[in-house]
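EI: anyone free to look at a 219-residue chain?
SC: sure, send it
EI:
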Amino acid sequence: MGSAWQWVLVGVGLVASGPYVAYLVAIPSGRIRPHPVSWAIWTSITAIGLAAQIDKHAGPGTAILGIGAAFCAAITVLSLKHGRWSMHPIDWLSLAGALGAVGLWAITGNPLGAVITIAAVEVIGFVPSVRLAQAHPEHESPLLFLSGAVRMLAGILALDVFSVVTLLYPVTLLTCNTVFAAFILVLRRHRSLPARTTVAEVTGAALGGLAAIPDRPAT
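SC: here you go
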């Protein structure tokens, strides 16, 4: 069942998911233009990571990946209509690599092989979004990915079982989200994009409110 401290950490993960709600609200309005390929890849592999943790009875921290999978699926659905469909050959290569890796895991059915595979696919899944953010950093939210890193850290600390199978994927998520958020922030600063106040974004993240909706597209 897990200790009270572990469930407190799960609660921290829930609070850290506030920007995801704001991100979802911002997509139909065009303030955020996510790449559908990245989010489709992340949805599938987060679900596999969740299954691997459940298989190893990893404890309350498993709920964090469950929350992440649900948000990824919702963002994928919205991005199919409102996202930025700018497919480059490297995007198709990323998708093919992701599908191939997931297929390999499905054939072997090995939990360790699964997490190694999806950790690699997680990195591949960032390629289309990195390319898109490089061209349009105003269409991505660094706060969302920073909150994802916080959520993953809470999930790791709330696990019952610490092993390669239970840790590799969330640690990969933590690292990728942190690096990508920093990448977006550096691009925005370099290009001097108009931005809402950092205080408003951070406050919105803490409250899970709409103040976390990221910057408007540059005109």
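EI: Residues 4-212 form one domain.
SC: 👍
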